[in-house]
Specification:
globular; mainly alpha
Length: 96
């Protein structure tokens, strides 16, 4: 499977969010789109040993910062970057 869709989607999300005229109301929409992008990527990865399910949930501001950092890495071509804490948090929240 090509890694390009994830890098491209991440670049669009980072570019749109960092635009000077981004409205604060769009933050929740951006967060949902970013989480969907990460979840799609998680489903395509083969993570040996699985994800740690004993991780504590992330605070919203920490989750958003980690989403930005991970998407920035993917947008710059580091599509193999993994944030286990973020992945575990998203998977727990999506399950419940």
């Amino acid at each position: 499977m090509s890694q390009e869709p994830f890098a491209g989607r991440a670049a669009v999300l980072i570019e749109d969010h960092l635009a000077a005229n981004a409205a604060i109301a769009d933050t929740s929409v951006w967060q949902q789109a970013a989480e969907d992008c990460v979840m799609m990527r998680i489903k395509s990865l083969r993570l040996i040993g699985g994800l740690p399910h004993h991780k504590a949930p992330l605070a919203e501001d920490v989750r958003i910062r980690r989403l930005k950092d991970l998407l920035r890495l993917w947008a710059n071509g580091c599509t193999c970057a993994v944030d286990e804490d973020l992945f575990a948090d998203l998977l727990k929240r999506k399950r419940s």
